[in-house]
Amino acid sequence: MINRDIVIIGGGPAGLAAAISCYENGNKDIIILERDNSLGGILNQCIHNGFGLHTFKEELTGPEYAARYISQVHALGIDYRLNTMVIDINKDKVISSINETDGLMQIQAKAVILTMGCRERSRGALNIPGYRPAGIFSAGTAQRYVNIEGYMPGRQIVILGSGDIGLIMARRLTLEGALVKMVCEIMPYSGGLKRNIVQCLDDYNIPLRLNHTVTKIYGKERVTGVMVSEVDENRQPILGTEEYVECDTLLLSVGLIPENELSRKALVKINAKTQGPEVDECLSTSIPGIFAAGNVLHVHDLVDYVSMEAALAGKNAVKYVNGLFKPGFSIIIEAKNGVRYTVPGTINPNNAEDITVVRFRTGDVYRDAYLSVYLDDERVTHLKKRILTPGEMEQIIIPKKWFAERPNLQKITIMVEKE
């Protein structure tokens, strides 16, 4: 059994930022466990630009953004293990992992930071009729084939789902000479950032079919085409709207799911809306000493926010190891009227920073609406928003002084209001 103060599971952008934060806040007894053969996570295959505008005040590609953190990890001498699969973690913070060099390795940690990221929803979750031919890929898998392995997944492409990876791959495949025939989205709005719709679809005249989905896949050995249908307000196909589209490849960009099998093994309480751990203002989960940050917690739109969140988790993991957490009551943060969830879900005023950043997504598109914050029944924030959309994360700042002014505060409510 190896003893470590802080174990970080996952060496992507969240894990790297968390490790550096732990070090900078005074704890050097850190180890990162990463299952891939390099640090950096998903950023290594995201060769497009648009990263780092908040963190570094300049536009970087994914590998460039990751390299800045990797170089810091190397410079600080932070320990890490590559090609290391964590196979178990329990509520006592004992981590079991395996790799070719160390074999089966058990680590007793004082604190654990979960930064495993997320995975793509697969075809199996969609129940699309048809055989199982070659030519069906998740958008992230196709991105890895093109950007890292150097293979083209196909030449005539239909993309189902308008998440950011799907939009970015529509542009990427077009630049590589493929014909992207359309992007179909079952919802009446896109699941991606507005800038990606403009830069990846509009600039290349790629059609975005809202309220449309793929209802059948044709081909036995290889995809030969798909049936695209319009859907009604209940997202059910409308008879008579079917259109056959010839293609040799179907990419799926139908959502991301936080990777929380290990969290469940540790008996961490999972939020039904985010599919990530429930956390407080310190990003502490329901198991004391286990923290979570990044896409394992909730799916982000910008990696800069992942890094900020992970740095907070690292700082608080050090405080926990040093015994600096203060007991106290928790104020519930309620998501209401169009707000799907909030991260964090509770705040302990005794451990809160001067400001607490609460991030969330809406459940629908709202135009010319307001984001309001209520402290019990008192409205204290009423922000006019030209547009709110599920594809873009929102945030509200909760200053600590509110708690001092209201010692009996029970609940914070964040909601969308029309006026």
Oligomer state of the chains in this structure: single chain
Distance between the termini: 59 Å
Mean pLDDT across residues: 95
The total number of structural domains is 3
CATH fold naming of the largest domain: FAD/NAD(P)-binding domain
The stretches of 5 or more residues where confidence is low (pLDDT under 50) are none
Number of helices: 8
Output the structural class: alpha/beta
Description:
Strands 1, 2, 5, 6, 7, 8 and 19 form a seven-stranded mixed beta sheet that branches. With 419 residues, the protein is of the alpha/beta class. It folds into three domains: 1-120 and 255-325, FAD/NAD(P)-binding domain, CATH 3.50.50.60; 122-254, 3-Layer(bba) Sandwich (FAD/NAD(P)-binding domain), CATH 3.50.50; 327-419, no CATH class. Helix content is 21%, strand content 33%. The chain has helices at 13-24, 62-76, 139-149, 164-175, 194-201, 261-265, 303-321, 401-405, and strands at residues 2-9, 30-33, 49-51, 60-61, 79-81, 85-89, 94-99, 103-114, 118-120, 136-138, 156-160, 179-185, 208-210, 212-218, 225-230, 243-246, 249-252, 256-258, 290-292, 331-336, 346-347, 355-360, 366-375, 378-388, 394-399, 411-417. The model has no long low-confidence stretch (mean pLDDT 95). The chain has eight helices and 26 strands. α4 (164-175) packs parallel to α5 (194-201). The radius of gyration is 22 Å and the shape is globular.
